[in-house]
Amino acid sequence: MNRPFPFVLFLASILAVSASFAQEVGPARKLVMAFEYPGVEVLPGESVRLNLLFQNKGGSEEYLQVSVMEKAPGWNTALKSEELTVTGLFLPAGESKSLVFQAEPPLDPRPGKYLFRARAWSEDGRIAAEQTLQVSVRERRELTRGTAGIGLAASYPVLRGSSEVFYEFSLELENKMDQDAVFDLFAQGPQGWEVNFKPAYEPRYISSFQLKAKKSAKLTVEVKPPYGSKVGEYPVNVRVSSGAAYAETTLTVVLTGTYDLSISTASGLLSLEAMQGKPARVSMYVKNTGTAVQSHIGLFSFKPENWIVEYRPERIDDLSPGEMRQVEVLITPHNKALVGDYSVELKANGDKVSKSLELRVSVRASSVFGWIGIALIVLVVAALAFLFRWLGRR
């Protein structure tokens, strides 16, 4: 009669070794990292801002180091979250997160393709991921038009910034004719914009300019956009003429928008009452008062120790110019907080701007303690009445 016991024992030992090996190896680890758009195209002077996505497809949480390992010469790069520059990232198993990749170009980048490489790796170095981004800077064709008698060139035909400042373009005017000439200056910008000519390094405005034969001189074109102008590109057409000779060129202002926020309570009051250990509710409004879209607005608080401040929702992903969003705030004092007034600061952090609101929270004792106090007084009065009656009988 065959005895299967040796085979069973052998199989059991194999299974035990496999289980032990699986425990040592642990769950599978897999990290995925990708730019939201691996290839983008921009104009000269434009910055790059896009999401860098991370996904933990493994079975264990990961502590990652992140960095831009390679960048184009002259460009400044950073990985951002809210207002913070990020070098490390915690990524739970099965979850995804994103950072904002920012790249600021040099003053006058040449048209062409620029490569950037981001890398993420675990603390133990066993898993890593890399991703390459290609930024194409396309050529902006701003050719000077005109006759052979006048030369006109702009040092920097494209300037960028917010609508709160004015822009000065430097032009070089050349008289190629054989005689001295007076040149009439004309510029046309978008409706509501103010455009003026000035001699280089002089504050006065001019509408004509005299230049000797075969000579050149510098001119300044001052451009002032109206406050609150929308984000976009705005052309300014410049024409210089003398008789039949003329020259034309186009200058461009790229408005990136203004960044501003305002926060307030629904009632306008900056005080509220709360009970020890119980949440008090207040409605807060966050409004984008700038002209640029605000993304990833974080909500924070500065509060007394052991207090709890909760936001619903916890953050605002996008807020268009002029848009307002309501946020419910729950403020819970510590259950052993002393009766009195406390200060709680509510804060909203957006792109390049941060605004705060200070609330005065008056903590009141729970009504239960009031009833307990009344009951104690009643008991004391009853005890004294009983004592007086008992002593009176004696």
Could you explain how this protein is built, in words?
The chain contains two helices and 29 strands. The chain has helices at residues 5-25, 367-393, and strands at 31-35, 39-42, 48-56, 62-70, 76-81, 84-85, 88-91, 96-104, 112-122, 128-137, 145-146, 150-154, 158-161, 167-175, 181-188, 194-199, 208-211, 216-224, 232-242, 245-255, 261-265, 271-275, 280-288, 294-302, 308-312, 315-319, 324-332, 340-350, 353-364. The N and C termini lie far apart (105 Å). The chain has 394 residues and is mostly beta strands. The radius of gyration is 35 Å and the shape is elongated. A hairpin with a 2-residue loop joins strand 5 (76-81) and strand 6. It has three domains: 31-137, Immunoglobulin-like; 145-255, Immunoglobulin-like; 261-367, Immunoglobulins (Immunoglobulin-like), CATH 2.60.40.10. Strands 11, 13, 15, 17, 19 and 20 form a six-stranded mixed sheet that branches. A five-stranded antiparallel sheet has the order 1-3-8-5-6, with no helix packed on it.
- The whole-number mean of residue pLDDT values reads 85
Largest sheet: 6 strands, mixed
Number of strands: 29
- Number of separate domains: 3
Distance between the termini: 105 Å
CATH superfamily of the largest domain: Immunoglobulins
Q: Please give the oligomerization state of what you see.
A: single chain
Beta percentage is over 45%
Number of helices: 2
Second rung of CATH, namely the architecture of the largest domain: Sandwich
> What would you report as the Rg, rounded to the nearest angstrom?
35 Å
CATH fold topology of the largest domain? Immunoglobulin-like
Share of helical residues: 10-25%
Q: Identify the CATH class of the largest domain.
A: Mainly Beta
Structural class: mainly beta
As residue ranges, the low-confidence spans are: 17-26
Give the overall form: elongated
